[in-house]
Structure formats: C-alpha cells, structure tokens
Protein: EthD domain-containing protein
Organism: Umezawaea tangerina
Amino acid sequence: MARKLVLLTYNIKPGVPLEEYEEYTRSIDYPIFRANPGVVDYSNYVVRRNARGEEWFKHFDLMFVEDLDAFHADGALHHGDPAVLAHAAGWRAKWGADPATGWRTDVNITYADEIQG
C-alpha cells in the first residue's frame, strides 16, 4: 500500500540556538504528534547545507499518516486533534514569530502519495 505523506516546510525564529529547538522537538513535539493514532511516523529535519540551489526553508517535517483526508479534517488540519492544534498554536507563538521585529514564518503543508515501484 502506498504511503501517505504530509510535508511541512518552515523556518524558526532567527537567533534561536538550534540545540534549543532540537531539544524541544525531541521532548515535546515528537511525543504530541506521535500520540495521534492517525500518524504512522513523524520526524523533523534541519537543512545542514545546500548542495545545489537553495530552498526558502531550513526545517521540514515528514509525517506519514493513515489517511490524508482524515489529516486534513475539512481544513482543521492535524486530524482536528485538539491537543495537536493547541500544540501547533503554541509552536507558532514560540518558534514561528518574533513580535519585536514582525518576522513570521510561512508553514507550508503539502500532501503526497508515494509512487510504489
């Protein structure tokens, strides 16, 4: 069966030590997303360097889910799971915006179907 992927691309607030964000990912982000029964696998990545060309984002998450429509939840996203939605709002406040400078990251969410060989 072809896997279903949710790809999230984004940046974190400038000036944040990467080690601080990595610890947050391990201790808070992973447990919350992985607790949802519709999430098959979830992992976060940081771009270390570009070999050719450059993406607009430095961070991306790969989330394999049972069902993309269930994840989409009629536009609510994250399976409409209140715990995940509250976590996502807290993430935006802590890592995705800087009120002092007005900086705010885009968080792009892309759905993909695996092409099986």
Remarks:
- The helical segments are 18-34, 68-72, 82-95.
- The mean pLDDT is 96.
- The chain has one domain: 4-113.
